[in-house]
Amino acid sequence: MCLLIRLVIKKLDRNWQACLCLALPSQPGWRGGGAGLAEHLWAGSSNRTAAHLQDMEKARPLWDNPLQFVFACISYAVGLGNVWRFPYLCQMYGGGGFLIPYVIMLIVEGMPLLYLELAVGQRMRKGSIGAWKIISPYLCGVGVASVVVSFFLSMYYNVINAWAFWYLFHSFQNPLPWATCPLNSNRTGYEEECEKTSSTQYFWYRQTLNISPSLETSGNVQWEQALCLTLAWLVVYLCILRGTASTGKVVYVTASLPYCVLIIYLIRGLTLHGAVNGLIYMFTPKLEQLSNPKTWISAATQIFFSLGLGFGSLIAFASYNDPSNNCERHAIIVSLINSTTSIFASIVTFSIYGFKATFNYESCINKVILLLMNTFDLEEGSLTADNLSEMKDYLMAAHPQEYAQLLPQLKNCSLEAELDTAVQGTGLAFIVYSEAIKNMEVSQLYSVLYFAMLLMLGIGSMLGNIAAILTPLTDSKAITSRFSKEVISGFVCFINCIIGLIFTMEAGNYWFDIFNDYAATLSLLLIVLVETIAVCYIYGLRRFEKDLHTMIGRKLNWYWKTMWAFASPLLIISLFIFYLTDYILTGTLQYQAWDSTQVTQLLCFKTNKQTHFH
User: Fold this and answer.
1) Considering the chain, what is the average pLDDT of its residues?
2) According to the annotation, is 348 in a ligand binding site?
3) Which of 174, 201, 213, 490 sits 20 to 30 Å CA-CA off 118?
């Protein structure tokens, strides 16, 4: 009987063997391979095993092809952080020199942990809760923690898509509504708040957010933003309605369209006046920053969060793979594309940033020239940007009293100071880019393209976040036996939308910043640390190595084993200690508040108590 079973197994193709291996992950004595499988079939009931396998294959949908899975991972990993976080880090920590710690952290941390999560999902063929429960019943809480963190993220993340919808709808107006300040109620001049700042800041803080002066002043729900948030959640629901069948089609668009827009912006950005100034600023390495520990910590953090590790989304996506899929190759591809996109987006951002800085610098120079010419009645053309410094010295010596009275009105124009202004997050996405777009020719076209790109990046990330929540729920027979997948998906989206209305209130942007800063950082680091320890030391690295050999057909490289067992856990522990120490030493938490009476700057107000998110 045993010999007969061995002969049958040898006739099976490699994919069918892999399916059988994965169907029996928790059986006693299981070690993988043809002989182990034969012994298991001999000891058990072959009819029951075949029935179990057939039920599993029917219940578990698959991606149509491996390319669809890769697009889903790229759409999830390549998000808004690549556009508005990585350029900021380059600006803060050494320009081109920042790429050195960034690439090192990609090799030590990014690729190994991404491969680990994809391999776990593909091997266990469950969402985060089920996958870690198979590894050990005591690790079920790791999956629950991933679902909770993903739920926290989904609550506030989709409001970014709501803002992108808002700006996209307004991009069809001519002129753009943030191009100039609106008239006051008497129509005798511009709004005072807008005159004190800029038209783009006014449109963001007043007309979009209608922001309150402090966190304590909650204000009312802004119905325009609430409608945009509802629309954003409706789009997400339609994308996930039929599971991988619908998500697999959507990711082709959400993953590819941003690259098309970035290429268009790159071509346009390189032709803008002053773009070279931004690129020189970016690629000029400041190697002294390599001795700054925060440079390395920022590089490690950017890699960690950019790939979306710890949320359970990658495990969920990989669980729908064919068991013989080469997840090692896909992990390398996704991580390299993600990092390359960050660098590519930085080139686009700094070309536009250089244009904006040059435009502001030249505008400042022209205002100073006009002020000096009118004050001292100089001949037209006698004062230019080239001789401005010499003429200032001459006028100060020739007319000391008049020049002293005029001095408070003379701005110190500096291109370097404009380029040094570091902006990240929503400030870069909705203020800096809007400022640059309004000064472009055919500004409506570039505005539509830009905010459509933001929307695709945001929706792609949301699909992964929701998959991390829905996959463990739909894996539960207790839930799916009572409710259809469409109902479960709709309920999750509805609850998130209702809670998300908090972020559409007048104080909603303050809550958004608090959630963004404190809702997930420490939790994700702890989750991924436990994941690596669980695979290497609880499930067993040798056992996991055999599983991978069964799946992809070759032995695990020493590089992966070294990173999983030693390097990556030590790096995560270091990051965890740093953030925990920084959180403790910070003391009373602070947040940036918008003061409409002094809108030339963002004023910092202190909260009266510590805010904790678990």
Assistant:
1) 85
2) no
3) 490
Beta strands in 62-194 (DSSP E): none
CA 179 to chain CA centroid, nearest Å: 28
Q: What span, in angstroms and rounded, lies between the C-alpha atoms of 83 and 379?
A: 47
Instruction: Tell me what pLDDT residue 43 has.
Output: 35
How far does CA 70 lie from the centroid of its chain? 17
User: What count of Cα atoms within 13 Å lies in the side-chain half-sphere of residue 527?
Assistant: 28
- In terms of residue numbers, what domain contains 241? 79-171+195-605
Radius of gyration of the chain (CA): 28
Measure the CA–CA gap between 538 and 536, rounded to whole angstroms: 6
Q: What pLDDT digit, counting tens, does each position of 295-321 carry?
A: 999 999 999 999 999 999 999 999 999
Are 147 and 465 in contact, with CB atoms under 8 Å apart? no
CATH of residue 586's domain is 1.20.1740
Q: Report residue 34 as tokens.
A: 């043809």
Per the structure block, which two tokens stand in for 97? 């020199």
Domain count, the chain: 1
218 is in an annotated binding site: no
Chain-centre distance of CA 566, in angstroms? 27
Asked whether residue 404 is assigned to any structural domain, the reply reads yes
Instruction: Return the bridge partners of 190, or none.
Output: 183
Asked if 298 and 97 touch (Cβ cutoff 8 Å), the reply is: no
The answer to whether 454 and 428 are in contact (CB under 8 A) is no
Q: Looking up tokens 């061995």, which residue turns up?
A: 6
Is 82 part of any known ligand binding site? Answer: yes
The confidence score (pLDDT) of residue 115 equals: 97
Chain position carrying tokens 């870069």: 428
Q: Which residues of 230-267 are buried (b: 16+ CB within 10 A; e: fewer)?
A: bebbebbbebbeebbeebbebbeebbebbbebbebbbe
- Cis peptide bond prior to 101, omega within 30° of 0: no
Structure tokens at 120: 């776990």
- Within 10 Å of residue 358's Cβ, how many Cβ atoms? 20
Question: What string of DSSP letters covers 446-502?
Answer: HHHHHHHHHHHHHHHHHHHHHHHHHHHHHH-HHHHTTS-HHHHHHHHHHHHHHHHGG
For the chain, how many residues are written? 614
**Which residue's structure tokens are 């905010």?**
451
Provide the 3-class DSSP secondary structure of residue 507. Answer: coil
Query: According to the annotation, is 128 in a ligand binding site?
Result: no
The pLDDT assigned to 524 comes to: 94
Residue at 128 is within a domain: yes
590 SS3 class: strand
Side-chain-side CA neighbours of residue 168 (13 Å): 18
Query: pLDDT per residue over 441-497, tens digit each?
Result: 899 999 999 999 999 999 999 999 999 999 999 999 999 999 999 999 999 999 999
Binding residue per annotation — 338? yes
On whether residue 487 sits in a domain, the answer given is yes
Residue 50 clears pLDDT 50, i.e. is over it: no
Render pLDDT for 331-360 as a digit per residue (tens, 0 to 9).
Answer: 999 999 999 999 999 999 999 989 988 998
Torsion 441-442-444-450 (CA) sign: negative
In a domain, residue 190? The reply is no
DSSP 219: -
Q: Using CB atoms within 10 Å of the CB of residue 471, give its burial: 0 to 12 exposed, 13 to 18 middle, 19+ buried.
A: buried
Q: Is 382 annotated as a binding residue?
A: no
Model confidence at 415: pLDDT above 90:
no
Looking at the predicted structure, is the pLDDT value of residue 118 above 60? yes
- 470 carries a ligand binding annotation: no
